[in-house]
C-alpha cells in the first residue's frame, strides 16, 4: 500500500485522480492524502476536519473523496413520556423508550438527541418537552406509511396512455411480484397513475419497514418498469419523474404523504401554560392562527407551522437520516385550540401533523458510530419487532419533539419573550 505523500505526488503528476486513492491505499491514508493536498492547494488549516472519532472506512458507503468529518455539536432534550396513557410509571423510568402495544409505536420516556449549530434551539425544545412532561406526556401516531418513487414514461398520445393505465390497473399483482422480487423486506402498497398528454407518471408506494427506503423503492420500481415496458406501449424516460416527490417542496407530499405521516398532540392545563410558558391558552391559539395559519396561507406556504423543520433537521443529523429530506419534513400543520376546563382556567390543546417524514433506523447514515449511539439513546437502533416498528417509533418521537418546539416558540411569541430569550442565552 502507498503512503499519503506518495499519493499526493501522483495526484499532482496526474497519474491518479482523487477518487482513485482507495485503489492504492487504505481509506485512512487516502483521506489523509486528500486532506493534506486540499490544505496545501487552498492554503487552509484542515486540522479540525481530520479529528474524528470513527474509522473512516466505516463511512465508505456514505461519502466519496473523504477528507474527514464535519462535526456538529449534539445536545439532548427531555425526557418526555410518549404514549404512556394512564401507566403508573409515566413519570418514573427515564431510560430509553421502547415499542408500544397500545396503538402507538413508541411507549415510554425518551431523550431526544439533537445535532445543531443554532443556539437556543435545544433549550427551546427542552422547555416544550418539560411542559409536555408536566402535562402527563404526549400522544403520537403514525397514520400513513409509504415511500414513493414515480417514474416518467413516454407514449404516442392519449390513446396509448389510456391503454397503459388500464394495463397497470389490471396487472397490479404482476407489478407487485416484479417489484418485490428485488427485496426481502419491502412491500409494494399500490401504484397511482397520472397522465399529462403523452406523458405517464406512475407513483409507486412501498412499505420499506425500518429502512427509510429510497434506494429500496428505486431498485424495486426499476424492475416493475421493465415489466411494464415489455407489456405496454410506454417507454421509460426517467426512473424518477419528480412526482415522487423527493427532496423538493411538493403539494402531493403534503396531501398524500411520503414516508411516514405522523401526528402528535397534548392537552396542557391552563395553570401550566401560565406557570411555565408565561402566557395564556387563548394568546397561544391566536398567535398560531394568525402566524401559522393565516400568515402561511398568505405566503402560499406548504408548511403551516412555526419551525418544525428545526427539530426535524437536528434529529436527522443526530440519528443519521438523509438531511436533504428535511424539505419534506417541513410539510407540517400545527394547531392550537382552547379547551374548556370544568375546574380551573381553560386548557390548551396542541398538535403537530407532519405529512411526509422520511426516517429509518437501518441503513444509510444510521450505521455511523455517533448516529448509531444517538439511536441507542432512543432505544431504536436497527430493525424493529415487528419490522417497521422502530422507524414508526422514531417518527413519533420526532413528531413530539416538533410539537415541543412549536409550543415553546409560540409561547415565546405570545408572551413577547422571543428576543429577550435569545439575548439572555447570548445567541
Short synopsis of the structure:
With 427 residues, this protein is of the alpha+beta class. It has helices at residues 4-12, 27-42, 121-134, 158-170, 172-180, 214-231, 251-256, 270-277, 281-298, 308-319, 326-329, 369-378, 389-414, 418-424, and strands spanning 74-82, 98-99, 106-115, 139-149, 152-154, 187-196, 199-207, 235-238, 259-268, 332-339, 347-357.
Characterization of the model:
By secondary structure, the protein is of the alpha+beta class. The protein is globular and about 75 Å long. It has helices spanning 4-12, 27-42, 121-134, 158-170, 172-180, 214-231, 251-256, 270-277, 281-298, 308-319, 326-329, 369-378, 389-414, 418-424, and strands spanning 74-82, 98-99, 106-115, 139-149, 152-154, 187-196, 199-207, 235-238, 259-268, 332-339, 347-357. The protein has three domains: 18-71; 74-145 and 260-424, 3-hydroxy-3-methylglutaryl-coenzyme A Reductase, Chain A, domain 2 (Alpha-Beta Complex), CATH 3.90.770.10; 151-238, Hydroxymethylglutaryl-CoA reductase, class I/II, NAD/NADP-binding domain (Alpha-Beta Plaits), CATH 3.30.70. Strands 4, 5, 6, 7, 8, 9, 10 and 11 form an eight-stranded antiparallel beta sheet that branches. Strand 6 (187-196) and strand 7 form a beta hairpin.
Amino acid at each position: 500500500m502507498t503512503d499519503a505523500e506518495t499519493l499526493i505526488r501522483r495526484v499532482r503528476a496526474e497519474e491518479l485522480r482523487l477518487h482513485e486513492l482507495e485503489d492504492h491505499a487504505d481509506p485512512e491514508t487516502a483521506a489523509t492524502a486528500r486532506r493534506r493536498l486540499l490544505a496545501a492547494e487552498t492554503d487552509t488549516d484542515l486540522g479540525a476536519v481530520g479529528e474524528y472519532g470513527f474509522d473512516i472506512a466505516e463511512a465508505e458507503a456514505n461519502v466519496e473523496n473523504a477528507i474527514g468529518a464535519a462535526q456538529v455539536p449534539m445536545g439532548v432534550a427531555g425526557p418526555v413520556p410518549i404514549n404512556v396513557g394512564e401507566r403508573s410509571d409515566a413519570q418514573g423510568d427515564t431510560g430509553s423508550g421502547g415499542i408500544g402495544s397500545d396503538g402507538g409505536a413508541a411507549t415510554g420516556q425518551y431523550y431526544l438527541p439533537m445535532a445543531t449549530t443554532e443556539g437556543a434551539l435545544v433549550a427551546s425544545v427542552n422547555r416544550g418537552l418539560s411542559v409536555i412532561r408536566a402535562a402527563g406526556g404526549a400522544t403520537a401516531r403514525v397514520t400513513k406509511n409509504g415511500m414513493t418513487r414515480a417514474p416518467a414514461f413516454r407514449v404516442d398520445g392519449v390513446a396509448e396512455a389510456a391503454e397503459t393505465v388500464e394495463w397497470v390497473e389490471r396487472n397490479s399483482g404482476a407489478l407487485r411480484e416484479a417489484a418485490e422480487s428485488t427485496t426481502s423486506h419491502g412491500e409494494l402498497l399500490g401504484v397511482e397513475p397520472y397522465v399529462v398528454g403523452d406523458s405517464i407518471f406512475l407513483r409507486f408506494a412501498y412499505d420499506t419497514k425500518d429502512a427509510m427506503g429510497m434506494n429500496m423503492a428505486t431498485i424495486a420500481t426499476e424492475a416493475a418498469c421493465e415489466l411494464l415496458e415489455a407489456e405496454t406501449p410506454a417507454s421509460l424516460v426517467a426512473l424518477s419523474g419528480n412526482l415522487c416527490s423527493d427532496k423538493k417542496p411538493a403539494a402531493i407530499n403534503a396531501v398524500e404523504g411520503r414516508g411516514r405521516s405522523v401526528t402528535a398532540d397534548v392537552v396542557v392545563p391552563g395553570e401550566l401554560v401560565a406557570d411555565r410558558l408565561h402566557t395564556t391558552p387563548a394568546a397561544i391559539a391566536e398567535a398560531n392562527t394568525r402566524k401559522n395559519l393565516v400568515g402561511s396561507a398568505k405566503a402560499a406556504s406548504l408548511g403551516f407551522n412555526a419551525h418544525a423543520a428545526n427539530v426535524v433537521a437536528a434529529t436527522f443529523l443526530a440519528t443519521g437520516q438523509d438531511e436533504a429530506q428535511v424539505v419534506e419534513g417541513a410539510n407540517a400543520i400545527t394547531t392550537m385550540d382552547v379547551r374548556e376546563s370544568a375546574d380551573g382556567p381553560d386548557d390548551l390543546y396542541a398538535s403537530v401533523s407532519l405529512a411526509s417524514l422520511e426516517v429509518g433506523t437501518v441503513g444509510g447514515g444510521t450505521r455511523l458510530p455517533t448516529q448509531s449511539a444517538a439511536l441507542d439513546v432512543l432505544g431504536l437502533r436497527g430493525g424493529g419487532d415487528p419490522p417497521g416498528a422502530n422507524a414508526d417509533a422514531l417518527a413519533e418521537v420526532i413528531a413530539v419533539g416538533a410539537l415541543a418546539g412549536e409550543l415553546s416558540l409560540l409561547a415565546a411569541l405570545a408572551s413577547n419573550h422571543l428576543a429577550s430569550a435569545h439575548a439572555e442565552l447570548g445567541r
